[in-house]
Amino acid sequence: MKFIVNPITVFIILIVLGSCKNKEQKSATTIETTDMEYYMEPYRPQFHFSPEEKWMNDPNGMVYHKGMYHLFYQYHPDDIVWGPMHWGHATSRDLVHWEHKPIALFPDVHGHIFSGSSVVDKNNTSGFGTTENPPLVAIFTYHLMEGEKSGRTDFQTQGIAYSLDNGDTWTKYEGNPVIGNEGIKDFRDPKVMWHEASRKWVMTLVAGDHAKFYGSQDLKQWELIGDFGKDKGAHGGVWECPDLIPMKVEGSEEEKWVLLISINPGAPNGGSGTQYFVGDFDGNTFSTAQKETQWVDWGTDNYAGVTFSNTPRGEHIFIGWMSNWTYAQVTPTEKWRSAMTLPRKLSLKKIGGKYKLFNYPIDAFPIKDIGNLDNEVFLKPDQKLNFEYANLNTSEIVFKTILNDFKIAICNPMGEELVLIFDAENNILKLDRSNSGKVDFHEKFGIPIQEMPVENLPNEAFEVRIILDLSSIELFLNKGQYAMTAQIFPNAPFNTITFENTSSENHSFKRYRVQAIERIWQSQ
Ligand code: FRU
Questions:
Q1: How far is the CA of 98 from the centre of ligand 1 (A)?
Q2: Are 271 and 325 in contact (CB under 8 A)?
Q3: From ligand 1's centre to the CA of 211, what distance in Å?
Q4: Exposed/middle/buried for 464, CB within 10 Å: 0-12, 13-18, 19+?
Q5: What CATH number should be reported for the domain holding residue 93?
Q6: Could you give phi then psi for residue 6, rounded to 5 degrees?
């Protein structure tokens, strides 16, 4: 076997019989730097977006304008638990490095600012700007706390605000709310797009157990044009955060519409998750022939994800909130709480006669090789192979394999491990974080083992990509055909990967790469 090893890093390969467990106990690593303290608190994601401090949930208003990607987000500036919602704001030129901006939208007499979207009103249909300086228009839900507390059902309405200085300052429309409420308790999360075929703005929003569509010429006056979903898809909880996206089926001229719907609870591994439908949109309503429920991501921690509007090449770039309402408010961080998933490119493919939405990280993160094996690595039945590194905490592990019975354990010197189990007989991939570090802050965090049924994976070797940040794992099979995202809180850095062949036949993997991903944060 020939190993190609990057000389700058410590890379030891060992074939051992033992597993990661039963190692000597060492205390958690502490970070001792001073000028590098920014974004260095325990569990602080190094290359994922998180707010400098306090509570964050859903991504909101994601839009590209004048060379800048804007990420707004549900934000509670006074605490690390959910509370009166504002829109926090950050900008990026490359979707990798982010600059924090002042809070964009504050609560007002109509209520707190819940989730929503933004658009570039290029033709100044709203009249808020000019065609030379088109306004950015944010469309969001107002949540009137007093209304909710007094037992009313009409406390969620839709409002708009505009910015003429590329998102720096925002003015609320004096005619708010632009859509009132006739008594629907959960009536929120407007996502707006320009529908060229019918030459109007189309808003998708959710109303408890279904989506509603509204049309407008000016973003101010809205008319109900359709609804979808009472009898379709998963209904284990409330529908939230929709997104309606026109997509070309890859390798063909076929156009379909994808409708993302987050649901809480009712996700396949408990709590919050995002389902999708592939179908058609006729300018008024969405329809689909899809029978089974499809999920964007099978892990516990990818919620409320939607796509950017107005992207330069018309790409569909998705970001989700990397948490789950089941335990989001008690995760073991102190200064801030929650991060976003990596930005992921969505694509639509037809596989085994079914439309399948792929999601896969954008290719923009600076990486550095830690260890590469170009040759195929063979494992006999029951054989285990350990790879040890100085630190695996901010890295990606990529290799190619066919679906077979095998197990990957990513471990630290404290005996904590994150385990992936490939069960080829049942076509299931399992993620076990029960012994991955801190899990006891909530009874449902560690258990049960998360499961992802996989079908129609290629018969030949496909890519497995595992991305680890200080408090997350994102797993992608076959370049995004399947995704699984989960938070983790290990007490020491991971430093070992064990591959174990649990089948009765020889098993191999190839093109094994381990790459460090560069930290994106610098004191601002
Ligand atoms: C989804 C959600 C949205 C709502 C927002 C409130 O996580 O519940 O439906 O607008 O969070 O913060």
A1: 23
A2: yes
A3: 15
A4: buried
A5: 2.115.10.20
A6: -70, 120
pLDDT of residue 20: 60
> What is the Å distance from ligand 1's center to 348 Cα?
27
**In this structure, what token pair is assigned to residue 140?**
């969001």
Q: Which of 336, 361, 386 is the last residue of a domain?
A: 361
Total domains, the chain:
2
Bridge partners (DSSP) listed for residue 228: 211
**Residues 6 or more apart whose Cβ sits within 8 Å of residue 113:** 85, 86, 87, 105, 106, 107, 140, 141, 142, 143, 159
374 lies in the same domain as 353: no
- Residues of the domain holding 465: 12-33+367-517
pLDDT grade, residue 19 (50/70/90)?
low
Mean pLDDT of the chain: 93
In a domain, 269, yes or no: yes
Residue 392, token pair as written in the block: 């695996």
Residues with CB under 6 A from ligand 1: 57-58, 74, 85, 114-115, 141, 188-189, 240-241, 304
Is 176 found in the same domain as 322?
A: yes
Same-domain status, 16 and 68:
no
- The catalytic position among 58, 243, 301, 432 is 58
Query: Ligand 1 center to residue 298 CA distance, Å?
Result: 20
For the domain that residue 434 is a member of, what is the CATH number? Answer: 2.60.120.560
Can you give the three-state secondary structure of 63-82, one letter per residue? EEECCEEEEEEEEECCCCCC
pLDDT in tens, 224-258: 999 999 999 999 999 999 999 999 999 999 999 99
463 closest CA partner among 334, 308, 358 = 358
In this predicted structure, the answer to whether residue 516 has a pLDDT above a threshold of 90 is yes
Spatial separation of the C-alpha atoms in residues 286 and 284, rounded to whole Å: 7
Do 331 and 401 lie in one domain? The reply is no
Average pLDDT over residues 478-505: 97
Question: Mean per-residue pLDDT for 144-168?
Answer: 96
Flag whether 118 is in a domain.
yes
Q: How confident is the model at residue 179 (pLDDT cuts 50, 70, 90)?
A: very high
What average pLDDT does the segment 176-181 reach? Answer: 98
Which ligand 1 atom is nearest residue 206's CA? 9
Q: Which of 112, 189, 325, 329 to mutate to test the pocket of ligand 1 (most atoms within 8 A of CB)?
A: 189
Residue 363 annotated among the catalytic residues of the structure: no
* Residue 175 shares a structural domain with residue 302: yes
Percent of the chain with pLDDT over 70: 93
Domain match, 393 and 418 both: yes
Which of residues 464 and 9 earns the better pLDDT score? 464
pLDDT (tens digit per residue) in 265-281? 999 999 999 999 999 99
At residue 284, the 3 state secondary structure works out as coil
340 and 470 inside one domain: no
Q: Which ligand 1 atom is the nearest neighbour of the CA of 321?
A: 7
Give the ligand 1 atom nearest the CA of 240: 9
Q: Is the pLDDT of residue 17 over 60?
A: no
The ligand 1 atom nearest the CA atom of 241: 9
Rounded mean pLDDT, 175-192: 97
Look at residue 381 and tell me if it is in a domain.
yes
Is 38 part of any domain?
A: no
pLDDT at 349 over 90: yes
